Amino acid sequence: MNENTKRPVLRIRIVFGDEEMIGPGKAELLERIDRTGSIAAAGREMSMSYKRAWQLIGTLNAMFREPLVDSTRGGPGGGGAVLTEAGRTVLRLYRAFETEAAAGGATSLDAMRSMLRDIPEEK
Q: Partner of 47 at 20 to 30 A CA spacing, among 4, 24, 26, 28?
């Protein structure tokens, strides 16, 4: 196996129910909202429609006992969005779970990786 072969990347989706799940996309959306202060801006950065970003936040807010994102409507002063304390906690727990899963599965992932065929580099 050549040294340029990338390490496996886990993309974990935690499914709580038929419509209730959190995965890498929703976690990234939360992180971007936290950084930009805007659901629309976070969605744009992810090449996601405004409507889709709002739908995902609506789903997340409905899943948990407390909303993860608090938003204010636009207007003369403009709108905005912030992660609530619950939002920060859920995001931190999700990222911690990813880290724990990667560490726990490292041996098996390395074994599978060693079985991959070499893929020639494109020129």
A: 4
